[in-house]
Specification:
Chain lengths: ~160, ~375
Amino acid sequence: MFLKDYISDVFNATKSLLKGMRRTGYYFTHHKEIITQQYPEVKQALPERFRGEVVMPHDENNEHACTGCTACELACPNATIKIITKFDVTPDGKKKKALDTFVYHLELCTMCNLCVQACPTDAIKMAQTFEHSVYDRSRLTKKLNEPGSKIRAGVE
Amino acid sequence: MYRETQIIKHAQKASSNGGNLEEAGDLVINVGPQHPSTHGVLHLVITLHGETIKNVEPHLGYIHRSIEKMCESLSYRQFIYVTSRMDYLSSHINNHGCAMCVEKGLQVEIPPRAKVIRVLMDELTRLASHQLWWGAMAMDVGALTPFFHAFREREMINDIMEETCGARLTMNYMVPGGVMYDIHPNFQKRVKEFIEEFKKKIDEYDELVTGNIIFQNRMKGVGYLTKEDAISYGCTGPTARGSGVSCDIRKLYPYEVYDQVQFNEIIETDGDCFARYLVRMQEMRQSLSMVEQLIDNIPEGDFQAKTKAVLKLPKGEFYSKIETARGEFGVYIVSEGGTTPYRIKFRSPGFSNLSALNHMAKGYKIGDLVAIMGTLDLVIPDIDR
């Protein structure tokens, strides 16, 4: 009896194994169903909502929409954003708060999107770039407003 | 590692008079924290007699990030993203639980569209989590191919998440008051494609692994957990449901729209590894049917309720619980009326499930330990927080 059980066990195990191996053999012979992508050569287009890093879009006149209100700085959970403001003098002699430097620490950012949601003027957005590796850590600290840029007229 | 082993040995010798852990001929070995079969930085001190396990002692703290303490300095909008880093395989569901607790405090009613989107996302996350578990489980007991099969289907869900939420693993999509964005125009089409595809593939899963006699022999009769023990150890989720405990929060305390969809609570009564395996396999089919029911019935309307820019919870204590892929996840907030919580406590399912490991593994061979741990579906950052 023991021998009979043993042989039937071996037979059943081989049968179930072959059943599973049939699946493997199917994919072995059907190359078109293989979904591996050759990453550095073939790059898949990322969806528009993909969160890669925070950027500040500038228009053709080198103008941005950031008023320096620090809503994003307050919304950020990791102190990723530091906004340095200055006082511009308007033509009629009044002082007006404006953005001097928008410091963005990519090394601290978790791409949670809370800053973009908090921005009242849509001055910042998430970009689709994701290959962030650099040789020096200090290069991850970025200044988002471009040199010489100023606030777009009409944005309050 | 060597030093730690010595410390543990001394500690065990000191307590061995009462506990009688170590006898002559016993061997104490360390599995982990960097061991490929433990799914993360879990350190197990195993006392062996020959190949038989006498005692398993999990040592925690290798990935402790003090998330509960961190949350005390973050505002009610900010703390939600941190919980994605706990149980990273059900990050949507963790975020959902936290958002629900904040909404309970604010007494905000979220729009019906947001409710349905949340449930859809939860079930897709559960599917993705169970798929990964299935692949890792089969890999634990020696089958490598299923891992790639599982990741192929999981990729489809990840793509859907990426398109709608903007991220693949730590989405931060649930916000107090609803969801962050409306669903992507392609969302319904792609989910339907996924359902069609996965219905075929889940039968393939069964063909490949479930019916395999070698796999069944590894799983059946191993790691018994009785119903009484499952309750007394505080096990929840598929681990407890494999022992016949009815503990599905979605069924017992329905939240969002779970009382409007048709689904069964899967309960197996065997209590061994194979029962827990079957529970998860059938839960995948239930999740699939839930997604199928809801995907064409997303009501029109807002996806987010109007909330104030700065959230302030009234003074008091708030608790909400939710069913993650691993069990009951509870969020307990103590508020003093300010913008940040006074204290936050998370009840994570993995911690309680792990506490039953010693009980389940005692008396079995060391090779069975990996199978038992696989069916517990451990995510170590969830245990350590």
